[in-house]
Recover the amino acids of this structure.
């Protein structure tokens, strides 16, 4: 339905800004590349952290932040605090993903 509403150009797909695939209001839809659509995804379930872009490194006993951009994963550092790692991820997501960044904190 969202494709019928927005009719994206070739090579683009439709992204739901609020992550709700049932909310097909025009204000919630935007054309995006596949990469941009992936950037706007929520955190995967089953990860060691409650935040996107953060996982716990058992060997070091610290939280690690990372982000994907242009097909590569970039390490953002190790942190004692899980929230600090998540805020570092958010800053990188704003920089690299712009309006398509799925943030941990608003």
């Amino acid at each position: 339905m969202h494709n019928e509403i927005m009719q994206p150009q070739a090579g683009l797909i439709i992204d739901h800004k609020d992550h709700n695939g049932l909310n097909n209001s025009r204000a919630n839809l935007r054309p995006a590349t596949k990469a941009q659509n992936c950037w706007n995804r929520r955190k995967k379930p089953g990860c060691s952290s409650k935040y996107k872009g953060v996982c716990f490194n058992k060997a070091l006993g610290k939280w690690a932040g990372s982000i994907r951009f242009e097909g590569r994963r970039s390490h953002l550092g190790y942190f004692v605090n899980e929230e600090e790692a998540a805020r570092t991820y958010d800053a990188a997501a704003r920089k690299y993903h712009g309006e398509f960044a799925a943030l941990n904190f608003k």
